[in-house]
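FW: tagging you since you asked about this chain on Friday. Here's the raw sequence from the shared folder, copied in full. Didn't touch anything.
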Amino acid sequence: MVPREARLMAVLETRGLTKTYGSGELRVEALRGVDLTIELGEFLAIMGPSGSGKSTLLHLLGGVDAPSSGQVLLEGVDLASLSDDRRTIMRRQRIGFVFQTFNLLPTLSAQRNVSLPLELDATPTEEARQRAQACLELVGMHHRGSHLPGALSGGEQQRVAIARALVIKPALLLADEPTGNLDSGNGRQVTALLRKLVDEHQQTIVMVTHDRGVAAHVDRLVHLRDGLIESDQEQTPVTE
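HL: got it, structure written out here
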């Protein structure tokens, strides 16, 4: 964990964040005013019951959706004020995503899956290849770079997905139930990898999880209920 006194800036901040779906009798207030500051090198988990607003909050933090009101400031830039195109560019260049279902392209090798975000951003082919290889090494998958996703275990696929999220050198990594499709052993390995990225590389990570064992490894735990922050506590992460 990066000591609080050593953190230099807020990577992400929300101010009065709300999200409403529908209208009239069908109106649903998914978020009802969320204020949150996430600092450089912080590992934060979001928990809460079904319908508490976890997924909605993650989508707003990642610029996937726009809030009904309030601000989402990523490195000082308000995502809510950007056009859809500008928000897409910001998301592609500054935010890494890790999903429960891996979302790897089945016809591309592990290395091509990792380099794809760079290729889509017109990074020269050789540079994209080298950066992809470096990220695969970081997650312990450099020896499997030529394999298709179908030839990899679930834990290996998730490591490749994490490498893909890291290849753009994101300011923020968002993980949505990253261990949800893994057995307990692979889940522990992926959790340890995320912890390592924070401890050794000062990667800022926000993770939604339902698993209290996984949440025990983070620096800070936020509980949502009915679209509001019920509690927000720092904790000493478990080490194995």
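FW: The beta strands are 10-21, 28-39, 43-47, 69-74, 77-78, 95-98, 172-176, 205-208, 220-225, 228-234.
HL: agreed, and The radius of gyration is 18 Å.
FW: great, closing this out.
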